[in-house]
Amino acid sequence: MSPVVEQPAKARIVTNSPYLRTVPVTLRYDGADPLALRIVFPPEVSQDRERGEVVWAFARDLLDSGLRMPSGDGDVQVWPCGRAQTVVEFHSPDGVAVVQFDSAALRRFLKRSYAMVPAGQERHDIEPGAASELTGLTEPAEARPLPHT
Fold first, then answer.
1. Please, are residues 130 and 33 in contact by the beta-carbon 8 Å criterion?
2. Mind listing the pLDDT tens digit for each residue in 105-118?
3. What distance in Å separates the CA atoms of residue 55 and residue 130, rounded to the nearest whole number?
4. Average pLDDT estimate for 126-143
5. What is the CATH number that goes with domain 4-125?
6. I need a surface site. Which of 72, 99, 129, 139 has the fewest CB within 10 A?
7. Whether the model pTM is above 0.90
């Protein structure tokens, strides 16, 4: 069984409202799928709350580069927002969600994931039968929409 890094974080869902809605999320990195990371949103952010949590999986290097410069051109895009915030934009057939994170929390998470599987070593650490076939995966693990912005 591969080690897993999980870290709680706060995500601020950006909407047309003058107030940001903050929800707890879990940042997850599994050594069995070393190219990907996951952001797990609680069921209350889904438009279909009965289906459970919302999980988005995308390439770890997308988050890493998005902390420094606008990155991504698919279903997940990441960019710095000032010195202390990072924005992650999720696109699904049901709409778009814009979520803001504290950059420090994302950096801590990435540092822990790189301690487990260093950059450039991901392909060596893929376990046989692992689900990932990532080459910049930006598809949601389960395409359930977050609230529309």
1. yes
2. 999 999 999 999 99
3. 17
4. 43
5. 2.30.31.20
6. 129
7. no
